[in-house]
Amino acid sequence: MRLRPSARSARWPASPYRRRGLASAITADITRRLFGAGTEAAWLEASGEESWRVYERVGYRPAGQRLYIAVS
Question: What's residue 23's pLDDT?
């Protein structure tokens, strides 16, 4: 499997497959592959508390914040 560093969004499991650890397993595997290939840093943006819990289970910790500004 070839991983692109520019890949930005994850597709979480559909309802019948939720709460089975699939998102955590997929996230952990992709993380191992990226860092095994030499990646030094990862920036993740959780879409909510549920997705953030997945990242925490895998071992990610907050390291910064992003500020969004809209100019009209």
Answer: 86
Mean pLDDT of the 12-38 span: 86
Amino acid at 22: L
- Start-to-end C-alpha separation, the chain: 42
Q: Is 27 helix (H, G, I), strand (E, B) or coil?
A: helix
Predicted TM-score (pTM) of this structure: 0.65
Q: Which two tokens stand for residue 27?
A: 């996230």
Quick one: which of 25, 17, 19, 26 has its CA closest to 50?
19
49-58 and 22-36 helices, crossing angle to 10°: 50
- Integer Cα distance of 47 and 45 in angstroms: 6
> Residue 22 in contact with residue 13, Cβ under 8 Å?
yes
